Every structure is written in structure tokens, then in C-alpha cells.
Amino acid sequence: MNFLSQLTGCFAYPCAENPTVAMIEAAYRHHGLDWRYINCEIPPENLADAVRGARAMGWVGFNCSLPHKVAVIQHIDGLGESAAIMGAVNCVVRRGGKYIGENTDGKGFVESLREVVDPKGKTLVMFGAGGAARAIGVETALAGIKKITVVNRSPERGRELAELLSRKTPVAAEFVPWQGAFDVPQGIDIVVNATSIGLFPDVNARLALNLDTLHPGMVVADVIPNPPRTLLVRDAQARGCTVLDGLGMLVNQGVIGLKYWTGIDADAGVMRKKLEEIFGA
Ligand code: NDP
């Protein structure tokens, strides 16, 4: 590294092999930027020191993965609109010398969604009520989705997310407990799996969902990036739905982070290709 380099990275714990590193660094190389993206294993008790260290070293920004997404808020200087609603940050950006927390997961999802449908006025069923679901719920609501039905195994979490969406965004949100095979109601435009069902190595896990209620004309999206072609993606495609895999969301949150940090419009194709190499898509 020379003194022209700019530092960005991920504060992760535990520090697993991180495909985001390969994806972001592929973009830096492609665009001729002498920047680095470094994955750092930060135990929760060292998070404050890590943020202080990033400031001292002049980091332009960094991603946060679990369990730092909420805890990091007390160590930075402000929040973007959707991160404030969610109460979770996955991307910190240096603006005018201050570290501002953003959440790019949901924004990445909406960007992918816009490639196939305008979210404005549409109805959405979302399985899951964890961090990914919260990000997608808030951001699709801010993008103009008319109604969100949250379907979750744990009723407390599901109800809490539906209430948060109703209270803090313009969307009409409801919670439906997930009991047995779910029938997607008529008139739903978009179905999203925001649970971890189907994530490697549990690639044969299926959502409890009545596949006969999926129809051509619906958009079916999966957040699972590994493997990209989940059972849900394949089942929905076989029923004539328009499908979105989890790679699109992952690539787009990276593109948005790169825009925040560097100002460039990164080539999403280069980034997706790198992830496809890693996940064997
Ligand atoms: P959380 O642990 O916060 O939430 C997990 C969710 O999945 C909960 O709603 C949980 O339900 C549900 N769930 C898990 N297992 C089951 C099961 N067997 N049956 C029913 N429901 C289940 O995780 P995250 O929200 O952070 O992440 C979810 C997934 O999203 C991960 O696989 C992650 O890889 C992916 N993701 C993808 C991104 C991308 O860019 N493509 C970005 C961020 C995340 P309950 O509340 O009942 O426990």
C-alpha cells in the first residue's frame, strides 16, 4: 500500500471468508482506483477502538456485519434516513469529516427490484422479520410499496416489524403468523424470501409455501446469495414468475457503498462476475 491508497473495509465478527472483499476490490481494480477494502475481525468489546482507529487512519468508510450493525451507532456521528428508521447500519460513510451510518442492504434490494418492476403502488409478501427483512421492508416502503404482509415463524419478531413499518413509514403493513404452507393471497405483486432458509449448506431447504399460489406476472425474489439459484428461485421460475436472486441485492448494496465512498458509478457486471466465480453460479 502506498500513500495514495484510500482505505475502506468491513468490521466483521467472526471474520469469515468475505466475498464482499473480492467484489469491492474487483471494482477498485476495474476502475483503476488505488484503494483497498480490508476485512477486519473486531470482537464486540473492541468496536469503539476500531472506529477510533478508522478515524485516525483516515478511512473513507466501512461496512459493518453482525453483530456490529446496531452497536456501531453509538460510535458514529449521525444516521441516514432509512438507517435511522431501521436502527441498524451496515455502511459507514465519511461526509465532511463525520462518520454517517447508512443501510445499503434494503437500497440494494430496491435497486434490483427496479430492474424488473416499479415498486410504486405494488403489494408485497415478505417471509422473515430479521435484519434483512427489516432493511427490505423499510426501503421498499420508502420506495412507494402500498402494502407489506410480513410472514414470520416467530410472532413477536414478525409483529414488531409490521408495527415498525406502519408507525415509521407510509406503507400499510400487517403481520401474518407462518403456520404450515403459506398461500400467497390473490393480487400480490411481489414475494420475497428474507429468511435464511436455503442458505448454503442447507441448499435443499424449502420455504413452507404453497407453490400453486405463485403465478406468472408475480416477481419472486430471494435474498440468499449462496447458492444464487435457490430452490425458491427455481420453483418460481418453473411457474413462470419473474425471479430475482440474492446476488443482485449483494452487488447493488456494493455499488451503492462504492458510490458513497468514492463517488464512482461502479460496473455492477464486473462485481457480479466476481461473485459468480466465488459461488460457482
Ligand atoms: P436474521 O437472523 O436476523 O433473521 C433470520 C430470519 O429467518 C428470521 O425471520 C427467522 O425467523 C427466519 N428463519 C430462519 N430459519 C428459519 C426456518 N427454518 N423457518 C422459518 N423461518 C426461519 O438474519 P438476517 O435477516 O440478517 O439474514 C437473513 C438472510 O439474508 C441470510 O441468509 C443472509 O445471507 C441474507 N442476506 C442477504 C443479503 C444480500 O445482499 N443478498 C444481505 C443481507 C442478508 P424467526 O424470527 O422465527 O427466527
Main attributes of the structure:
281 residues; alpha/beta; Rossmann fold; six-stranded mixed beta sheet; six-stranded parallel beta sheet; binds NADPH dihydro-nicotinamide-adenine-dinucleotide phosphate
Would you give an account of this structure?
The protein is globular. The protein has helices spanning 19-30, 47-56, 68-71, 81-86, 104-114, 131-142, 155-168, 231-238, 246-262, 268-279; strands spanning 6-12, 35-41, 61-64, 78-79, 91-95, 98-102, 123-127, 147-152, 172-177, 190-193, 219-222, 242-244. Helix content is 38%, strand content 21%. It contains 10 helices and 12 strands. The model has no long low-confidence stretch (mean pLDDT 94). The chain is an alpha/beta fold. It has 2 domains: 6-102 and 250-279, Rossmann fold; 106-244, Rossmann fold (3-Layer(aba) Sandwich), CATH 3.40.50. Bound molecules: NADPH dihydro-nicotinamide-adenine-dinucleotide phosphate (NDP). The site of NADPH dihydro-nicotinamide-adenine-dinucleotide phosphate has 23 residues, from helix 5, helix 6 and helix 9. NADPH dihydro-nicotinamide-adenine-dinucleotide phosphate (NDP) binds next to helix 5, helix 6 and helix 9.
